[in-house]
Amino acid sequence: MATPQSNATITALIDDVDVSGAISIASTGSWTTWGDRASSPIHLRAGSYTLKLRFGYSGVNPGMLMNLNHVSITPSGVVGTPPPPPPPASPPSVAVSSPAQGTTLGGSVNVTASASGDKGVSRVEFFVDGASIGVDTNSADGWSMPWNSAAIADGARSLTAKATDTAGQATTSTQVVVTVKNNVNQLPVASFTASCNSLACSFDASASNDPDGTIASYAWTFGDGVSGTGKTIGRTYSKAGTYTVTLRVTDNAGGVASLSRVVTATTPPPPPPTTLHIGDIDGVLKAATRTGGTATITILVESSAGATVANATVSGTLTYTGASRSLSCKTGTAGTCSVSVTSIPTRVTSVTFTVTKVTHATLAYKAADNRDPDSDSNGTTIVVRK
């Protein structure tokens, strides 16, 4: 037999499957002793396996296999059952919410369902006796599907809904059994409009209708503890706010439908002003020049609502030692006007101006309301000094 070669290999097999590939192992020059060599880690789940090692070398006898009397196996890491994978997302939940179990119905109805899931719900399909009546893919307005029960024979019918989430998982609801009876009274439709002007609101239910009969009565609740009846009706609220108004209509066969809407009552605007008054008086007395001193009085006119008033004529008297002048002016858009007196003698150190009347096309003068926010007058008379 030839001398051992240096290019021998060893291969690990688990249940006869090569898991390591050929691993080179060095010769010591002896037929009985070869070098040590460790394989790369071999990852196994917990359990029982059959390990085989195949040894050989090329050269004079490249196909020769040898038995090994000793193998050392070193576990790495924790030996045991690995942690389970994370649980998958739960499938969606779904239930038919309307019509209710045991309902007797006829004509066109909406079949509605509630559905939710870890992955969200992408669609809900509705079934009658196992046959699809449509798929709803828009959750914005809830999950529902119209169903014309008149298209099938009267009797007990099974309603189910199948919800599918965004991961493709699907759940079918528990069935809801209803009784189809197409000569049953069709419910009326409640409808109304609302219009509010400050605290006063009006309601009109003329658009309410009954598909197979007539509306027999209209009943209202206004959200403030007050109720009423009639096709059209008004309600004046005691204070501003939002109120839920509900209309309940009953048809000639006793069928009932209702509709609620929110209305807003607002605080009424203040009444238009009826009077005006002086809102401020200011004055300036300039020193005398060669032609004499000058006194200027500026008057502000306000309405009873606190707004400035244009086109008001202010009349008054300006007096100083040895003289008295009657003066008037008309307010502009800012509500002010001014009167002036010139050639006031040098010896004069103060002048007095008194408002005698104010006239306006629509507002009456109320002198008792005269005021002056900076307190340099009493609102009617001002003394102006140099």
* Overall pLDDT score: 88
Secondary structure category: mainly beta
Residue runs with pLDDT of under 50 for 5 or more positions = 59-65
- Beta strand %: over 45%
State the assembly state of the protein chains. single chain
One letter per element, helices H and strands E, the order comes to EEEEEEEEEEEEEEEEEEEEEEEEEEEEE
Termini, distance in Å? 140 Å
Number of separate structural domains:
4
Task: Walk me through what this model shows.
- A hairpin with a 2-residue loop joins strand 9 and strand 10 (131-136).
- The chain is mainly beta and 386 residues long.
- Strands 7, 9, 10, 12, 13 and 14 form a 6-stranded mixed sheet that branches. Strands 1, 2, 3, 4 and 5 form a 5-stranded antiparallel sheet that branches. Strands 18-17-20-21 form a 4-stranded antiparallel sheet, with no helix packed on it.
- The chain contains no helices and 29 strands.
- It folds into 4 domains: 8-66, no CATH class; 93-180, Immunoglobulins (Immunoglobulin-like, Sandwich); 193-265, Immunoglobulin-like (Sandwich); 275-385, Immunoglobulin-like (Sandwich), CATH 2.60.40.10.
- The protein has strands at residues 8-14, 17-18, 23-25, 51-57, 65-66, 93-98, 104-105, 108-116, 121-128, 131-136, 143-148, 155-165, 170-172, 176-180, 193-197, 200-204, 215-221, 227-229, 232-236, 241-251, 256-265, 275-289, 292-303, 313-320, 323-330, 336-344, 350-359, 364-365, 381-385.
- Mean pLDDT is 88; it is low at 59-65.
